Amino acid sequence: RVEARQKVEENEERLRMAMQLTNLGTWEFNPLSGELNWSQECKDIYALPAGVAIDFKVFSEHIHPGDREYVETAIRNSMNVSGDGKYDITYRILRFNDNSVRWIRAKGKVYFNAEEKAERFIGTVVDITDQKLSQQILEESEQRSRLAIEAAAMGTFDWDLVTNDFISSQRLNDIFGFHGQPNITHKNLINAFHPEDKPRRDEAVQNAAAKGSLSYEARIIWPDKSVHWVRVYGKIIYNEQQQPLKMYGTVVDTTIEKTNLQALEDSTTRLNIAIAASELGMWELDLLTRKPYYSDRYLEILGYRERIDLTHEQILAHLHPDDLLVREEAFKKALSTGILHYESRIIWNDQSIHWIEGKGKVFYNEPGQPSRLMGTLRDITEEKFYQKELEDREQKFRLLADSMPEFVWTGDEEGNLNYFNQSVYNYSGLTREQIDREGWLQIIHPDDQDENIRKWMYSITTGTDFVFEHRFRKYDGEYRWQLSRAIPQKDNDGNIRMWVGTSTDIQDHKMFTNELEQQVSERTKELEQKNKDLEKMNTELQSFAFVSSHDLQEPLRKIQTFGMLILENDQQNLTDTGKDYFLRMQDAAKRMQTLIEDLLSYSRTNTGDRKLENTSINRILHQVKMDLEEEIRKKNATIESGDLLEVNVIAFQFRQLLTNLISNSLKFSNTERFPYIKINSRMVQGNETGIPALSPHELYYQLTVADNGIGFEPEHKDRIFQIFQRLHGKHKYPGTGIGLAIVKKIVENHNGIITATGHPDNGAAFTIYLPATPERVEVPQ
User: Fold this and answer.
1) Beta strands 753-758; 699-707: pairing state
2) Residue 61 burial by Cβ neighbours in a 10 Å radius (0-12, 13-18, 19+)
3) Which of 2-16, 393-407, 518-532 has the highest mean predicted lDDT (pLDDT)?
4) Alpha-carbon distance 46 to 24, whole Å?
5) Predicted confidence (pLDDT) at residue 729 exceeds the cutoff of 50
6) Is residue 736 within 8 Å of 595, Cβ to Cβ?
7) What is the pTM of this model?
8) pLDDT higher for 731 or 69?
9) Is the dihedral of CA 723, 728, 731, 732 positive or negative?
10) Exposed, middle or buried: residue 222 (CB in 10 Å: 0-12, 13-18, 19+)?
11) What are phi and psi for residue 564, nearest 5 degrees?
C-alpha cells in the first residue's frame, strides 16, 4: 500500500508539473450542489482576483456574449445521460481584471450516479489565444491570397518535381483555353506553348532550380488556334539536402495587357509621327520648382539650332515686350480653367521677330494645387505672314471694288451675302444697316425674287456658277435690268470657301436686244417669203432640167445625124475646108451633149429622198468595171482592190461616185506608164483622221481611191471639186469639169467628207469618210 501510494503521489506530481509547464488549469463542478472549484492555473487563465468566490453564475457571466449560448448548450448536452458524457469545446472568455478577450479550450468528463443524474463534472482548460491568433492570421493570409488570386484572375499550379505530378487550378486551365475541363495533363499545357516561345520557356524552367524561382512570359495557342499571352511565376521548395522538391506558381493571362501595350506603342508612334509632321515643339514646366523641360524642336522654334539648357527666365527673355501681358493673362486664365492658349511674338538672338502659338494643359497634385504645365509650341510666323498678306489683299479688294461702278458682292460658303461695294449702297439708296437688317432681296423686283432664290440655291448646292438677269430697284424707284454673275472660290480639296459676284447694268443692252428681236422677227418673215420664192425657182429649174434632157438634146441629135449624112453622102461635093467645118461642128455638138448629160447627173444628186441601204462596195465596183471595160482595156489599166467593207449608202449614187473617180484616174493617166488604180477601205475613229470636221469619238467608213496619174498641185486640192473647174485644156484632156463636183455632192448627200491629195506627175488620192452608223439621209432639194 505504501508503494502504491508513493506511485500515486509520483504520478500526481508528474501531472502537476505537466500542468504547470503547459499552464493547464483544472476544474470540478457538482451539478447537484452547484459547487464549482478551480485550480490556481484556471484562476490565472481567467484572471480571477484573490478572495473572489467562483460559482457557475459568475463563470457564465464571463463567457463572451457571442459564445455564451454555444457553451451552455454544450454543457447541457454533456450532462445528458443519453450522450457519452464528454465535453470538448473552444470559446472566448472575458477576463475578470480587464474584460480582455481570450480564447480557451475546455475538456471534461461527466459522471452519473445510480439514478443517471450527473453528480460530478471534472475537466481541464488551456489558454489557446496565441494559437488562435496565429491560426486566424494564417487563415486571413490564405483568404487574402485567395482573394488576390481570384481578383487577379490568376491560375495556380502545384508541381511535384520528384514524381512530376502536376496539379492545375480550373482558372489555369481556362487561361490555356481548356474551359470547363478540370482534368488537364501537364503535357497538354506544355504542348499549348507557341513553337517560337517554347525554347524560352524550357530555358526558364531549367534555370529555375538554380535561381529558386521561375519567371517568364510567352505565347500560347488555344485549341481554337487563337494566340494568347501568359506570364508565369513560380517558387521552388527544397528538402534538407537542398534538392528541389516542389514548385508552386501562378499564371496570368496578359493578352489584353499585351494588346493594349501594343496599341499604346502604336498610338505613341503615330503621336510622335504626327508631332514630327506638324513640327510641334513639346514642353513641360514644373510650377513648383519653375524648372522647364523641352524638346529639340522647341529650341529650334526659339532660334537655337543646337541643344542648350535654358532656364525659365531665359526662355521668357525671348518674348516680345509688347506681348508679355498677353502671355501673363493666358497663364492666369490657365490656372483657373486648366487650359492654356495664346499667340505672341518672340525675338531670336539675331533680333528677328517670329510668331508662336502656345497650347497647354494644367495638371494638379493630390491637394488639388496646380503642379505641372504640359503643352506644345508651334511656329506660326508663315501663317501670320499669309494672314497679313490676305488682310492687305482684302483691303485692296475692297478699295478697288468700292471704286468700281459695277456692283460687287461676296458670300460665304453657305451663300450668305456678307459684303457689298459702295456702288450698291449708292444705287439703292440703302445703308449697310438696312441691308443687313432687311436683307438684300428688297432691291430685287418682286417678279424676279422667286427665280433668283431658286437659281442661287441651285448654284450653292451644286457649286456651279450663278448667272441670272434680274431687275434692281434704284433709289428713285426705277427698276433697271442687271446681269449678275457669281463664281465659287474653292480650296485645294474642291471645297467652296466663298462666292465672288458682280452685277452689271444691261438696261441699254436689254432695250437694244428687244429692238433687235423685233427686227429679226421682221427679217424672218422676209426670209420665209424668199424661201417660198426659192422653192418656186427650184421647181422651175427642175422643169428646165427635164426640158434639157429632152428638148435640148433633140436638136443636137438632128445636127449630129444630118452632119453625118452629109459627110457620108455628099463628101465628094465638099471642099477640104468644108469637111473640116463639118467635123468641128460634129465635135462641138458631141461636147454640148456631154455637158447636158453631166448637168443632168449633177442635178439628180440634188433631188429626191433616198433611203440608205447596206451595200456591198465590191459589187458596185464590179459593175463600174464592166461599164468602163472598153476604156480600161484601151488604157491597159490595172485596178487593185482588197475586200472592201459593206456600208450604208444610196446605191445608184455611190455607183456614179466610183464611176466618176475611176474615169477621172483613167482620163488623167500618164502616157509614159500604164494606169494603176488602188482602192481600199477600213473603219477609223474621228480623232485618228486629224480632220476637225469629224466627231472625234465616232466611227467612220474610209474609202480611198489612189492612182499613179499626172497628179495636181497641192494648192488645187479644193478647187478641183468646184463645178466647171478644169486644171488643163479641153483639147488635152476632154471633159466638162463637173465629174468631181458630182462626187463631192454625193459624199455630202451621205453626210460625209471627201479630201484630195496629189503632187505633179506623182498621182492623186481621193479619200471619202462616211458615218459608220448613219440614219436616213434627207437629200436637200
Assistant:
1) unpaired
2) exposed
3) 518-532
4) 12
5) no
6) yes
7) 0.32
8) 69
9) negative
10) middle
11) -65, -40
